[in-house]
Amino acid sequence: MKKDVMLGNERIEDVRWLCSLSNSELDLVISLKKMATQRNSVILKKTSHKFLSKNLNLKMLRDLTFVIMQVVKERLDGVTPVVASGIDRSNVIKHEISDEFRDMGVEELMAYILPDKKKRISKLFGIDDTVTKKKKSITIDC
Q: What's the superkingdom here (predicted)?
């Protein structure tokens, strides 16, 4: 498959980051996208900010997630430093991609997505579910 077909308009760095997320981190990103989409629909009804819906891509979700997690970390740092340090170890707050994912190509990334994650990640890309069911998934042991 061509790179353009697999990634759409998304950057490969953002897809690498997405593939590095755990299930709970992926749930956070999906929930954030749902909230942003709902918020955009309310804003679009009241004003003519069409650029908001056009720019809601994986890069924007990644940046938005990073900012939100930084705020959460700062608020928890004074109260519970142990939890704040746990946030630092999560992939959702890292802008640098781990060595494991840094050099992966498009095919490797798509094969890395586990079957249970594939359905949820494909929702972020807007990929039809019937296409993802036909492709066999290959897991890489960490």
A: Eukaryota
